[in-house]
Amino acid sequence: MTAIQGYVPPITESGALGVHSLDQFVLSVPDMNVADEFYTNFGLNMVRNGNSLQLKTFGHDHGWGSVIEGKAKALHHLSFGCYAEDISRLKARIEGEGVKLVDPPPGFESNGFWFRNHEGVLMEIKVAPKVSPDHKSDSQWMTVPAGKAAATVRASAPPVRPRRLSHVLIFTSDVLASIKFYERTLGLRLSDRAQDLVAFMHGIHGSDHHMLALVKSSAPGFHHCSWDVSSVNDIGLGAMRMHDKGYQKGWGLGRHVLGSNYFHYIMDPWGSFSEYSCDIDYIPKEDRWPSADHAPEDSFYLWGPDVPREFTLNCEAGEV
Ligand SMILES: [Fe+2]
């Protein structure tokens, strides 16, 4: 059982102002074709859009992520979506916090506004449809009556197609300062944390247990993007197929404590990860999650293989 070291009260914001979704994450990578191949094999629908490659899920119009060409793999920016009636108040609040607005990067002009976080990471807030879920995503335990076989033969197993982006986890040199920054600017709320090592934040309009997660490092960087699939079977099938395609490093199968999701992480060609995730906890908009500070050794994962060394490295900070 998780040891709860102390209740961490949520920040009360006037008017409960906040973004509703992580609209998109954008990575720069040295070779777009390598990205195309990796994410296509992962089960995403890759769509070329000018100089960028959009990461979509089949059956959904939204671009959950993008990759653009750059010298090395790096987190280029995070874009958050808000309601139209909130954008001017969000902008005023952020400027009131002393955060300077900046010009959009070429090719990413929008109805929104741009700024850098306390560590220089580029962020956008724009008016956009809510793409974070409005309720807990269904997950399936596929079973059949006695006298029937539940598993298919391998050749007829369907493709694994993630349904949506769940969250991203980014490195930060100061987890506690980052929590404060995202509370005061984006209006995210702390779901749970483990000391100053890792923290999970959700949206106030209803979201997964975390739409943005933070982990301590020497510098900012992108650790993983997490994709919701409908069953643990899909997690296993996806991981095996990625292994067969040559993506053999990763971590899983396991189950997290904070967020409760089942997971398997696949290392991408640049040393960061993509996660197959199922059955993550959901925080409805009307709820106050009892966020707590947990013992790290008791809250990282409930069960799973030992954590490989490469899982903790920030390749953007030169840790390889
Ligand atoms: Fe995750």
Task: Walk me through this protein's architecture.
This protein is of the alpha+beta class and 320 residues long. The protein has helices at residues 32-42, 87-96, 175-184, 232-244, 296-299; strands spanning 4-7, 21-29, 45-49, 52-56, 63-69, 74-82, 101-102, 113-116, 122-127, 164-172, 189-194, 198-202, 207-208, 212-216, 221-228, 250-256, 262-267, 273-278, 282-283, 292-294, 301-303. A 9-stranded mixed β-sheet has the order 11-12-14-10-15-18-17-16-21. An 8-stranded mixed β-sheet has the order 3-4-5-2-6-9-8-7, covered by helices on one side. The two termini are 34 Å apart. Bound molecules: fe (ii) ion. Fe (ii) ion binds at residues 167, 169, 224, 226, 275.
Provide the fold topology.
Elements: E1 4-7, E2 21-29, H1 32-42, E3 45-49, E4 52-56, E5 63-69, E6 74-82, H2 87-96, E7 101-102, E8 113-116, E9 122-127, E10 164-172, H3 175-184, E11 189-194, E12 198-202, E13 207-208, E14 212-216, E15 221-228, H4 232-244, E16 250-256, E17 262-267, E18 273-278, E19 282-283, E20 292-294, H5 296-299, E21 301-303
Parallel strand pairs: 2-5, 6-9, 10-14, 15-18
Antiparallel strand pairs: 1-20, 2-6, 3-4, 4-5, 7-8, 8-9, 10-15, 11-12, 12-14, 13-19, 16-17, 16-21, 17-18
Fe (ii) ion is lined by residues 167, 169, 224, 226, 275.
